[in-house]
Give the backbone structure.
Amino acid sequence: MLAPRRALFLFSLLSAIFLFILPAFCTASQSPAALPPLISDLVSRAGAGDSSAQRQLFQFLIHGDPASPDFPSALAWLRSLAPHDDPRAELVLAYLYERGRGPPRDYAKAAENHQALALHDNHVAQNNRAFLYQNGLGVAKNLRRAFELYLASAQQNDPNAQCNLATMCLNGSGVDRDLNEAAHWFRAAANLGDPVAQHDLAVFYSEGMGVQPSDKEAARWENLAARQGYPLAESGLAMLFESGKGLPLDYVSAYAWYSRAVMDGD
């Protein structure tokens, strides 16, 4: 059985942010002197265009404690960027609204922040906005529109979008069910190193879904996913060693991989 798809809000936010080199346009509205020294310094430097300070503030907003007294100051700085169409700010602000981190959870506002970026072919925003359409969060549910946005993002080599598109093809959601197309997009994400896609592709080869059945290929992809610590792939690889399908019969290796899967939460 295929693993349930991961949550589609796995943004790769930090990597997406680091790709942008646009400078900050203005500082937060609060006076730096009134802020704690570290955040005060970061806000001041970020407002002057220091990319390192900007990245640190983005990381703080994504990973920091929203209850921290520093959080409102960093959030004010972030909101000062958004009206200037700073794509980094829009991505992070959408994330905060989706998760209810700092501002209350508001999918409609998240959708607004994704919309402009999606129209400019930002693959992260396209994938995330597709999720909102797929689930009717902040926008009217529209599976066809979700499929179109996933496709646009997948064509830009976004592995999350490729996995999500493959799942829609597999389930016949927003498009006619097409196992060949599902296998194509799982393979695309698998080739980019996505362990969930590698596991799902292994299942496709094991079951002959959209591809010619091949225990050898199933074992190859399962091994790649398992070595990245994906629990379902670890147990899947153990089963292949236990059955001798695609791999030499090896109960010791089967036991070792089952043990790792248990330790990793399967």
